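From the pipeline queue, job 12 of 40. The input is one protein chain; the requested action is below.

Action: predict structure.
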Amino acid sequence: MHQQTILIPTPPLFSFPECLWFLNRNYDDCLHFVTENAVFKAIATPYGDVLFRVSEQGNFLKIDVLDGVSSPACNDYLMAYVNEWFDMGRDLTPFYTHLKRDSRLAYMVEDFAGLRLMGISDMFEALCWSIIGQQINLTFAYKMKRRMVERYGRHIEWENQVFHIFPEPAVLANAEIAVLREMQFSQKKAEYVIGVARAFADGTLSRSKIDALPDFEARQKALIAHKGIGVWTANYVLMKSFRAPEGIPHGDVGLLNALVGHGIIAERGEKDTIEAFFRDYAGWETYVTFYLWRSLAVKPLV
């Protein structure tokens, strides 16, 4: 196919290298491939499966369509996808103003300048990923995800490399618990992933249904009504797929470690102090969470 190129103007306070750092944290993520200056990703679109590369060109992000459908409508879809993935529509100025007033976190304005809260636009993928990651370390979670994606997802082959696409709900809805158990899923996690897939496949659960709800509390309640989705999982999905600022993954070990390491709390159980801290960052709760996670890579904490 003839390679198509799409250019997206980058907003102020945007750092492509910082975003690439997040996507390439030495974990084996099978759903994208990061080089020094670019990220490759294959996704399902309404127009067919597409493989594309995102790199930086001056004041633009450049999307090169490498394989799959190429049409004006598909190009518009990819542009919207990348805009959402990199959260390019957000003005970080108010957040940085707030950080500068906080002596404990002010360094982040320079050290992490331009880092965006990288999203997961596919709500089904975000739910499955958060279920897989419950109560295990990230390295093992990524191994489990790879096994599942390689078994049940589609892929695109390009220049002797395989680029995977997350499985469709209808496919995972018919997965066998025994097969997932062989991939080292616990019995419960296997049941939860298949259950969520069936809810998506039969229309009980969908992004449009959650989107239609009036507020964060209603969306959270609708998610945790499904077996296997607790508050942490619901909040993570609302953070990553819906950009809800209130979607704090309370109890997350990395977040707690970062709060202790920055002197915001002395002990992990200081619930009132944690709630007061996030109230002070109202409207930016998930962004400050994301930056606290980022800090773990450069400030070895407890």
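Job complete. The two ends are 51 Å apart (CA to CA).
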